[in-house]
C-alpha cells in the first residue's frame, strides 16, 4: 500500500471517530430524556372565600293512619317433624282468620312472616330437642278491623305493634314541608350574607331529604292477655307521627 493511500485511510478513520464522539452526548441525552420520569405540575388552588355551609328543617305532626301487627308463636319438642307440624297448624289457623278480614287497596294486608327450626342441645352438646318459631304480619289502614283480629287470634300471640304514617298521607305533606325547609334555608343564607357584609348569595350545592321513620311501639302483654280472655278488640291508640324535611348545602356570599 502506498503512502498516499495510508494517509487517506487514516483521515477517514479519524473523521468517523470524531463523528461518533460528537454523537455520544446527543444519544446519551436522548436516552436520559426517554427514561426520565414526567413530574406533574401541581397548581395550588386557593380555597373559595365567602362560602358558608347551612342546614335547615321543617317538621309537621301527621295522624298515624297505618297499623302493623306481627303475630308470632314458638313450639318445642323432641321430634322435628312434630314441631314443624305444630307451627304449620298454628300459622294456618291464624292465616285463615286473617284472610277472612283481608281487604284490598291497603285496608287490611296479610303477609306470612318468617319460619325457623333450630336444634336444642343439652350440656354435653347432644341434640335433645327442637325449637321452632313462625310469624304472621297484618297491616293496613283499617285499624278497627285489625285490632279486632288481634283480639280473636288464639293460636299466635301479638309480638309487636307499630303505628305509622302511610305512604299516601306522607306524600300529601312532603311538598309543603320541603317548601318550608327550603324557604328557611334561603332566609338563613340571606341573614348570613347580611351579617358578613355581603349583599347577596348564590347556592353552590344543596340536598333535600324527607324522613318519617319512627321506631316500632312495643305492645303491652298485659293488655294482650285481657283482649284474649275477653275476646274483645285490642285497644287502639294511634297517636301521630312526625314527618321532617331536611335541607343542607353551601352558599357563595357575594
Give the helices and strands as they follow along the chain: HEEHEEHEHEHE
Radius of gyration: 40 Å
Question: How big a fraction of the residues is strand?
Answer: 25-35%
Shape: elongated
Lateral strand order in the biggest sheet: 3-4-2-5
Terminal-residue CA separation? 94 Å
Number of domains: 2
- Give the biggest beta sheet: 4 strands, antiparallel
**CATH architecture identity of the largest domain:** 2-Layer Sandwich
Structural class designation: alpha+beta
Mean pLDDT, all residues: 81
Count of DSSP H/I helices: 5
Helix percent band: 40-55%
What's the CATH first level of the largest domain? Answer: Alpha Beta
What is the strand tally?
7
Assign the CATH topology of the largest domain: Translation Initiation Factor IF3
Summarize the SSE layout with pairings:
Layout: H1 3-35, E1 51-63, E2 66-77, H2 80-101, E3 109-121, E4 127-140, H3 143-152, E5 157-164, H4 167-195, E6 201-211, H5 221-230, E7 240-253
Antiparallel strand pairs: 1-7, 2-4, 2-5, 3-4, 6-7
Q: What would you say this structure looks like, in words?
A:
This protein has 254 residues and is an alpha+beta fold. It has 2 domains: 47-65 and 166-254, Translation Initiation Factor IF3 (2-Layer Sandwich), CATH 3.30.110; 66-164, Alpha-Beta Plaits, CATH 3.30.70. Helices cover 41% and strands 33% of the residues. It is built from 5 helices and 7 strands; from the N terminus they run αββαββαβαβαβ.
